[in-house]
């Protein structure tokens, strides 16, 4: 039991460590190694699932398909596994260093690791429950001995044989019956009475509470209204404008193809800063990236 628990704990720690390492590499903008690490973590997790369910495939592609065919993972999980595997293969064999692909691999891996953790805990709980429910040989022998002793008396007579001592005990056993039945009835009756009393008390308190005017809420709403309007006006008066001709790109990298060009003194729909060099804007209904060096904030 101790060895199994330690193995499960180390497995979970290694998988969780792989997710953290992937996130760390993305933070360092080492996107290629982040995608490779995501694939390695996925492969370790898939191997653990195959060992648990007795699947003997060796390749990552074959193991994922075998888990799906056996009904051990859902269709969505199977698609996520293959997406992480494909992104990792592209990083390994083609040297891909795309920030978008790295973030997508990390997002899918985090989602599936959460699912894996829930399935692992459910399997461990069901295994413990089945072990505790299984009867031991010693308890079976004790039940057999009790049946044997109840079927016969100490003198070898059947249980149904009448004797003076058994007839003397019978009235006392019968006399205890009504007392047990009375206790079993009085408990639910008392519980019902307590619930009724509580409902009556609540009903008496609520009218007094409802009669009080909610002056605090009205004052709070009135006091917050000017601040909200001021914040809205301040937000609407801030505009970002290009200072020179700037290229619009689908990703925060000059290695990607541009999807548009903005002329100088063009108002842009600024969304947020991506990092120290790039800003995120809305361009033709989608998020795009421009250099922060070529836009400035203008107050109207």
TrEMBL record:
It comes from the Bacteria. InterPro entries: DUF4145 (IPR025285), SH3-like_bac-type (IPR003646). Keywords: Membrane, Transmembrane, Transmembrane helix. Residues 235-298 form the SH3b domain. Residues 129-141, 225-235 have a biased composition (Low complexity). The chain crosses the membrane at residues 185-202. Residues 125-172, 212-235 are annotated as: Disordered. This is N-acetylmuramoyl-L-alanine amidase. It comes from Clostridium fessum.
């Amino acid at each position: 039991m101790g060895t199994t628990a330690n193995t499960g704990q180390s497995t979970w720690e290694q998988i969780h460590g792989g997710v953290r390492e992937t996130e760390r590499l993305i933070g360092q903008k080492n996107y290629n190694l982040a995608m490779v690490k995501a694939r390695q973590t996925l492969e370790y997790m898939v191997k653990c699932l195959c060992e648990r369910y007795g699947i003997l495939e060796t390749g990552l592609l074959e193991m994922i398909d075998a888990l799906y065919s056996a009904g051990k993972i859902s269709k969505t999980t199977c698609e996520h596994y293959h997406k992480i595997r494909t992104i990792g293969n592209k990083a390994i064999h083609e040297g891909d260093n795309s920030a978008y692909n790295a973030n997508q691999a990390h997002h899918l891996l985090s989602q599936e690791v959460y699912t894996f953790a829930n399935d692992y805990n459910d399997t461990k709980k069901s295994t413990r429950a089945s072990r505790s429910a299984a009867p031991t040989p010693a308890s079976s022998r004790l039940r057999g001995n009790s049946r044997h002793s109840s079927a016969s008396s100490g003198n070898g007579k059947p249980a149904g044989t009448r004797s003076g001592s058994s007839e003397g005990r019978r009235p006392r056993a019968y006399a205890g019956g009504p007392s047990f039945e009375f206790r079993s009835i009085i408990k639910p009756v008392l519980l019902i009475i307590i619930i009724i009393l509580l409902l009556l008390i609540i009903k008496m308190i609520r009218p007094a509470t409802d009669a009080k005017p909610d002056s605090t809420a009205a004052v709070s709403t009135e006091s917050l209204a000017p601040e909200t309007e001021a914040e809205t006006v301040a937000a609407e008066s801030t505009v970002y404008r290009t200072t020179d001709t700037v290229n619009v790109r689908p990703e925060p990298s000059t290695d990607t193809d541009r999807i548009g060009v903005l002329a100088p003194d063009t108002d842009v729909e600024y969304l947020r800063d991506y990092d120290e060099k790039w800003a995120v804007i809305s361009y033709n209904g989608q998020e795009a990236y421009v250099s922060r060096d070529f836009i400035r904030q203008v107050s109207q």
